[in-house]
């Protein structure tokens, strides 16, 4: 009888542990996508949050998370489907706290694209109020954005990359 009770107790505890593990892996949250490649011809809606399975990713409440689309940041270790954590700029953390090779989150709204994208920070422009930014082509060469991005449109810096695949 004692062994039967031990077996039942072990099965219950093991079952609870498996259920909790299953629920963690299936955890999903809503997240906005961020384009990592060229915005001209980018497909999809970048302003509607998507349901994203985050599995066991330990999300930092001080960061804002985005789902990466496109493969133009592979050279920086950011792949399609990755979840990036962005430290948004505020009074304590500003654009001047980043360096020339930082990956930045930019908000763009023009006739070709409406949403968020990520780019590598280049040099400040002659006007002093924008940065030239770039992504990488298939062969790993930098491809600069057609227009520099005004400081006001640069929202934060990518400081965390979670590979989901």
Q: Keyphrases for this structure?
A:
165 residues; 10 strands; 1 helix; mainly beta; six-stranded mixed β-barrel
Radius of gyration: 21 Å
Structural category: mainly beta
Q: In DSSP terms, counting alpha (H) and pi (I) runs of 4 or more, how many helices?
A: 1
Q: Low-confidence parts, pLDDT < 50 over ≥5 residues? A: none
> Main sheet?
6 strands, mixed, barrel
Share of helical residues: 10-25%
Order of helices and strands: HEEEEEEEEEE
Strand order of the largest sheet: 1-3-4-10-5-6
Mean pLDDT figure? 89
The best one-word shape is elongated
Instruction: Tell me the strand percentage band.
Output: 35-45%
Q: How many E-type strands?
A: 10
N-C termini distance:
47 Å
Overview of the molecule:
This protein has 165 residues and is mostly beta strands. It is 15% helix and 38% strand. Strands 1-3-4-10-5-6 form a six-stranded mixed beta barrel. The protein is elongated, with a radius of gyration of 21 Å. The chain starts with a helix and ends with a strand. The model has no long low-confidence stretch (mean pLDDT 89).
Write the layout of secondary structure elements.
Blueprint: H1 2-25, E1 28-35, E2 50-53, E3 64-69, E4 83-88, E5 103-109, E6 114-124, E7 130-136, E8 142-144, E9 149-150, E10 154-162
Parallel strand pairs: 1-3, 1-6
Antiparallel strand pairs: 1-2, 3-4, 4-10, 5-6, 5-10, 6-7, 7-8, 7-9
Short structural summary:
The chain is mainly β.
């Amino acid at each position: 009888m004692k062994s039967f009770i031990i077996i039942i107790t072990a099965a219950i505890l093991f079952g609870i542990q498996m259920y909790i593990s299953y629920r963690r892996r299936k955890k999903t949250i809503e997240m906005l996508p961020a384009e990592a490649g060229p915005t001209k011809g980018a497909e999809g809606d970048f302003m509607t949050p998507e349901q994203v399975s985050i599995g066991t990713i330990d999300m930092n409440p001080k960061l804002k998370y985005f789902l990466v689309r496109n493969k133009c940041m592979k050279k920086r270790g950011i792949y399609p489907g990755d979840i990036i954590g962005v430290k948004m700029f505020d009074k304590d953390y500003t654009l001047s706290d980043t360096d020339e090779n930082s990956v930045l989150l930019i908000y763009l709204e023009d006739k070709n694209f409406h949403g968020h994208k990520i780019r590598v920070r280049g040099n400040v422009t002659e006007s002093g109020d924008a940065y030239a930014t770039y992504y990488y082509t298939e062969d790993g060469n930098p491809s600069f954005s057609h227009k520099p991005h005004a400081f006001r449109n640069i929202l934060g810096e990518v400081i965390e990359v979670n590979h989901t695949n």
